[in-house]
Amino acid sequence: MLSIKSLDEIVIMKEAGKILSLIRKELLKFLKVGISTFDLDMIAFDLMKKNDVISAFKGYQGFGGYSCISVNEAVVHGLPSKTRILKLGDIVTLDIGIKHKGYCVDSAWTYSLGSVSNKIKQFIENTQKSLFLGIEQVKPGNKISDISRAIGKFGNKHNYGIIEIFSGHGIGKKLHEEPYIFNFDFVL
């Protein structure tokens, strides 16, 4: 069920979003060739402690990491590993979720380590463009399906495969709340 947030809840979630942004920016300083995804995750954990927040992911449905770090072919929810050492040309998605004053926020960002092909650069840029096209549809009178349609249409235009079992989602006291925003056109 969709939960309408109070002004006080929105203020807390904005605070959490600012903290999450600071953690991500600090973590980026360590996103380099030669680091393991486990070590990167432990740095994320230290940054969470430093900012007096806890991981929203650790223990969630049995997940073992403090953050999700997906490399190359891993679409989402990559489990940090001591044996996964980042190398030049890797595509890395940092998905970080935190709990602050009882509220969860999370975000995922994708980066390339060093030079990558123009095709991969374009893919990363286009996935971000599709996100913004979806956000443009968030306005009075529009439906969730308008957001999904904008994202899916752009992805299909570029012949990208759409992973239909994952979606964007609302945030709040739970990590995943309604509304769920799919990346493809659908009809209910």
Protein described:
The structure is a single chain. The chain is an alpha+beta fold and 188 residues long. It has 2 domains: 1-115, Creatinase/methionine aminopeptidase superfamily (Creatine Amidinohydrolase); 117-161 and 179-188, no CATH class. 37% of the residues lie in helices and 18% in strands. The protein has helices at 7-28, 37-50, 118-136, 144-157; strands at 54-55, 68-71, 91-100, 103-112, 168-170, 177-181. Strands 1, 2, 3 and 4 form a 4-stranded antiparallel β-sheet that branches. The protein has a two-stranded antiparallel sheet with strand order 5-6. Strand 5 (168-170) and strand 6 (177-181) form a beta hairpin. Helix 1 packs across helix 2 (37-50). 24% of the residues are buried. The mean pLDDT is 94.
Domain count: 2
Name the helix and strand elements from N-terminus to C-terminus, one letter apiece. HHEEEEHHEE
CATH class type of the largest domain: Alpha Beta
Into which percentage range does the β-strand content fall? 15-25%
Note the total helix count: 4
